[in-house]
Design brief:
With about 170 residues, this protein is an alpha/beta fold. The chain has 2 domains: about 60 residues, no CATH class; about 90 residues, Glycogen Phosphorylase B (Rossmann fold). Helix content is about 30%, strand content about 10%. The chain has 7 helices and 6 strands, in the order H-E-H-H-E-H-E-H-E-H-E-E-H. Strands 1-2 form a two-stranded parallel sheet. Strands 3-4 form a two-stranded parallel ribbon. A two-stranded antiparallel ribbon has the order 5-6. The longest helix is centred in the C-terminal third of the chain and has 14 residues. The chain is globular and about 50 Å long. The two termini are about 35 Å apart. This is At3g50740-like protein.
């Protein structure tokens, strides 16, 4: 089934039945069985255990009580033999299973401070990485979709990352 979630990775408010967030989520879960199905933004090869658990009537499927439909990936398949991209060339030169992939999705919104902290953490870790980084959004969550901030670039580093980050990590990061 699903990977266990450690207590410290949850929101305390979910344990308090009097909290506003808890009160908003309880009705949300109770309407699942009234739906014709649940659409999940993933696909079988990416999260096979989780999908199996959501679809299995002996596991989480008994809670949903309706079919679960994975709808990803939402892009056309690419013939790898016809793809020439610098990140693929770089990845092919790295040892197997040695590269972290960091992406917060199309709606992932990090503040400038969070981006800076993540950049410093990646640099200090000396870990190989591919980071799909977007300009920071310091405002509402929807600003991730509507932000026009592209960031000035100096020495190959966008202004929303620590100065010199790209040049210092160019052999380990992409």
């Amino acid at each position: 089934g699903c990977e266990p979630v450690r207590f410290e990775d949850t929101l305390e408010t979910f344990l308090d039945p009097n909290s506003q967030l808890y009160q908003e989520f309880v009705p949300f879960g109770s309407v699942f069985p009234t739906a014709d199905g649940i659409i999940v933004n993933t696909w079988g090869h990416m999260e096979p255990k989780t999908l199996k658990s959501l679809q299995d009537p002996k596991l989480l499927g008994r809670i949903a009580g309706v079919p679960v439909y994975p709808i990803g990936p939402l892009s056309r398949p690419v013939d790898p033999s016809k793809t020439n991209h610098p990140v693929l060339d770089w990845l092919n030169k790295q040892p197997d299973e040695s590269v972290l992939y960091i992406s917060f999705g199309s709606g992932g919104s990090l503040s400038a401070k969070q981006l800076t902290e993540l950049a410093w953490g990646l640099e200090m870790s000396q870990q190989r990485f591919v980071w799909v980084v977007r300009p920071p959004v310091d405002g509402s969550a929807c600003s991730a979709y509507f932000s026009a901030n592209s960031g000035e670039i100096r020495d190959g580093t966008p202004d929303y990352l620590p100065e010199g980050f790209v040049s210092r990590t160019h052999e380990r990061g992409f």
